[in-house]
Amino acid sequence: MEILKTYKIYIGGAFPRTESGRYYPIVDASGSTIANVCLSSRKDVRNAVVAARKAFGGWSEKTAFNRGQILYRMAEMLEGRKLQFLEELTKQGSSKEAAAQEVQESIDCLVYYAGWADKYQQIASSINPVSSSHFNFSALEPMGVIGMIAAQETSLIGLVKLLAPAICGGNTVVLAASEALPLCAVTFAEVVHSSDVPGGVVNILTGKVSELAPAMAAHMDVNALVSESLGELDKTLALACVDNLKRNIVYQQGTTQGLPYITALQEVKTTWHPIEQIGGASSSY
Amino acid sequence: MLSNTRVDKVGVEERVARFQTRSIKNEAKKQGLHMVLNMIDLTTLEGKDTPGKVQQMCYKAQHLHDVHPGLPTVAAVCVYPSMVAVARKALGNSSVKIASVSTAFPSGQSTREIKLSDTKFAVDQGADEIDMVISRGKFLEGEYNFVFDEIAAIKEACGKARLKVILETGELCTLDHVRMASEIAIHAGADFIKTSTGKIQPAATMQVTYTMLMAIKDYYDQTGIMIGMKPAGGISTAKLALHNLVMVKEILGNQWLTNEWFRFGASSLANDVLMQLMKTESGLYQSPDYFSID
User: Fold this and answer.
1) Contacts of A244 in chain B (CB under 8 A)
2) CB A152 within 8 A of CB A228
């Protein structure tokens, strides 16, 4: 007997149903329903933000090396679940070749950011020359709770490319899955769940972007909103972000990967440390 | 004198569960939240308390969130006896009352003499209310007369100050014990009965508060005398506080819905209520970043 999977959402390390009790069907190319997924509400966003805020302290205090290990573990778990992702991608309309490539790219992306975890700080921080007796340096600190709208046109790779650099840098995330292609997002939550990522660091909701994105944008306890361009919605979201001066980051479609995706979600703290002379060389820093 | 009432634990849990399904929205929610703020005993009871910390808390007691006009003050501040004078000075003529814990809080493991002098000291320093702890060890040994006499003696030492009797329900093990301790405290002269010190878990669960409210109700039905109730410890969200108010209203009625007769002992509840209030006004979910810590 075939047992169909119940697609639920992921909040604070648990898999609840949406508090609203609403669902929407996902159909394949032939028009037949392949799954019912949660149509999350703004109260789910609220609960997810509370969970993400609670997890932020512990996650950002973990050593960079440990965060790297955990990202690598996510890649391992994704590798182990490859077949399930391939099946879901093809159900949602990808060709076999495209699906295989998407899963492989997602695994590579996680390994890529696992490597960056204990390196980006060295590359992006600086010691700044100043003309006074100060040792002046700038270091990166994670922004906090990040609201994210996953890329709409892909089910897996788009969300991995947004998510990985955020948690690599010590942020916690509330992510809305692709509205039309949400299956891999929920299965990816299971990968996160089994990878030693503490509950609340990653929270994944499914539902309408037009409902979830404004709730994230207006929430006073969300520090940044990240998405690929959502067309007309962009302006509404940008205006809602103003209330608490949220960072509003809009990428062009087809996010790539690299250091800028990590540093985009970091604040720079510059310290002026009074000092008389540093080292024997009398060099001016 | 004691009723020897047995508490039906399953029944209590079912009734309490029903209080938690009530939905309170919009205007009613706003009113309820204002009421909660006005019923809070803003509390700091830590070894690391300093005059500075107490002064800061006394300021917060009178200025919960000044950017939003029209908010009430809290009912009282709750501090250790050594901090009462500091609080008295900081509060001046304010209507915010000063409650002081006493009787070798939180364990209560000391002699009668020390407990009495502890209480008198707090009253002399200017406390309006005394929060005493009962001797739980004696209670569990069955020395009910000892517990009764001790409460009566402290009540006498209080003079004009109102007496709240802390049962520390987390150490009483059963609801039957909670019911019995409530009756002993009420008959010995308590003006208020209070669940917990906040130092022991579990603290003010709805089940325990329900049991104590029923003891108050039965006493009121028999004698016509009102006794106050103060759940303390573990009530840190606006939602839980509103559920408690619903319970008080249904069991005791509107008479008890004032800070004369009902209080919340809490340190972090006020900010959550403020955040909920601002949410109902602005429609935006709030962040603790924009509310003062103390």
Assistant:
1) 287, 290
2) yes
